Amino acid sequence: MRALPILRRFGTLIGFALIVAFLWWRLPDTFMTARNWLNITQQLSMLTVVAAGMTVVMVMNDFDLSVGSMASLAGIVAAMLFSLGYPIWAAVGVALLAGLAGGLFNGVLVGVIGILPFVATLATMTMFSGAAFIVSGGKTISGRVIPEAFGNFARQGLEIGPVTVPNLSMVAVAVVALVWVLLEQTTFGRRLYAIGGNLEAAHLSGVPVRRFKLIAFSLTGLSAALAGLLYASRVASANPTQGSGLMLNAIAAVFLGMTMSEEGEPRVLATVLGVLILGVLDNGLTQMNVDSYVRQILVGSIILVAVSVSALSRSRRS
Amino acid sequence: MAVPLLELENVSKSYAGTPALRQVNLSIGAGEVHALMGENGAGKSTLIKILAGVVAPDSATIRVDGKAVQIEDAASAHRLGLRFIHQELNVVPALSVAENIVMAQGYPRRGGILVDWQTLNRIAKEALERLGVSHIDPRTRMARLSTGDRMLVKISAALLSSDGAPARLYVMDEPTAALTREETGKLFAVLNQIRASGSSVLYVSHRIDEVMTMCDRATVLRDGQSVDSGLLSQITHDDLVALMTGRTVSEAYPPRLAEPSGKIAYDGHGLTVRRGEIVGLAGLSGSGQTELLRTIFGSPARAWRTGAAYVPKERRGEGLALGRPIFENITLPHLGTLSLGGAMLMPRRERLFAADRGEDVRLRAASVKQSARQLSGGNQQKVVFAKALSGDPSLLLLDEPTRGVDVGAKFDIYSIIREMTTKGMAVILASSDLPELIGLCDRIAVMRSGRVDTIVDARLTEDALLNLCYGRGPNAEAA
Which of A193, A204, A207 sits opposite B324 (nearest CB)? Predict the structure, then answer.
């Protein structure tokens, strides 16, 4: 019984260490190399950005299903503006604004009108996805219309000694740092956690709950749009479904992270560990040539095990 | 003397070190309607849960017909003939009266598959008639019944559920809480029938008048200990009140330290409160006390800034984020002044501040980093108080501030309120606990149907205040 709380707090971390150890053992030459890890961080940068943004709304016990569609839409918006001859800064700016506006719309639906986040963001997920198809005409936008500099951003990085840290990874780290400061070091973050802890008590304590929901959802939308742009840069193209895998993985990463905190609240650094678990597993299993469907089953099982251990020890305690 | 139907001896139960029941005794004869009385938090519900097999006592001797028995779970309580009619009626509103009555038994079947509606309705009709109830059609949807009629249906269902073990004792928890006078009359007729049939009733109530009318004897719980009243026909109303409160009202409250000053701190909605004054809000439940406090408080963000503070009624639902640390709960309304430029947190300063404020309210916690969930009810309420008092408010609004709080913490809270008034704070205190209002307030505003009806000096008797709550003159005979 004494081992249980330790298992609950650190079980996910221990699990991550075991996964790394296993992959290191099975892939002695390729897995534990700086190159591979930089590669992993680059692969994970989009998911990291979305998951960090998702953490912000999940702190309030809400969540956002529309992030994947928003990522696709933002990529499409930027690519369309490129094809119309707008400069990079303008296209990127408008795409980010679209994310902010879409997130604000979610915030209005959830915070002002009072629709359950599941229902509200399920609806906007469909809407954003439809908008992406309409704007792009259903086609992938690629080739010469995408400015070279935009595509190059993802391919380049900062050279530190013998290694090159990819730009995408640095953007992801910067976003995580910003979200960490916001959630852990500011009164804004504290009040968000208060809303998540007890919405009515937060309201009666003077927290402007409605305004906070608007801001939080806007930030989540913004981060989704940023992730969409990173994705578009990485593949130097945009198509209306390319962000669709991000949403479920982002929620899964936050849930994995939540298993590591005392009261089961989301923490952005824990979310990053959740992202790493998903990403490292994917990277290693791919290298081991494990069938992608088997990979899906494995990833799903790991999420279930982590959350079950957490839920069981919690119910034991009360 | 005949062997009692049910005897409880030396029942003790503690929750996390806080005793809820201390060597409680209870004895009920056959054919007796026995009252179980006591103030909120006196241990009534714990005792009932032990009888129902829901809560295991730390120690207890239980005898039925003089034979020692164990009540391990709900099934063994049922086998012993104990039937429970709970305060919140567990009915299925979408189903018919008859279905609600036979639900526990299972529906009668035709050919093992189809429901035999005819038999089902007949069983239900007979069950109702056994109570002398003929005005309820078993085919009516439960949702269309009044609360009183639902109560009657529940009782007949309890009467019917005698598979294997006949019903011996009905435990009714505040059965008249939601009943009209007429419905109460019907219920009393049913109680008389049960008594005549030789079964017994444990009647849980804090309505003294009802108990004096209907019950044969009473057991009074006070701070977890029991007192047997003896035959109610041989004692007076006042004797019973004295048994329940056990002390003269003034002892339980810290002395008044200062007189209110002349300056007016709040004026509006028919209320004037001076600095240093405690004004009570009395009234029957649902007369608008909570709503008035919320109206006075107004928009929370502005209220905190302008020096008002509010302790809401539902500690867990409205007062605290249980999963958050104590200090975060205390500082939440005051983050603006406890942070750098209102934006960046200063957790160390917050923790020191919260620890100080916790000390002010005699908070007992290992650390302010603990989550509020880990505290007892009384200490949780002290956290709510620390949060309210942290901004040195000029107006403190309290809604049932001692509900579900143990006696020791109660006295602490009373002392805190008193201390704050010496610093010039004005207090508006809504409470359903009449002795609390009388013991603590300078004046009491009696509310009826959503507004302040009369304001009286708090030096009056409980009966007089109760009469005012019912809209009668203070000296009217209790009905």
Answer: A193
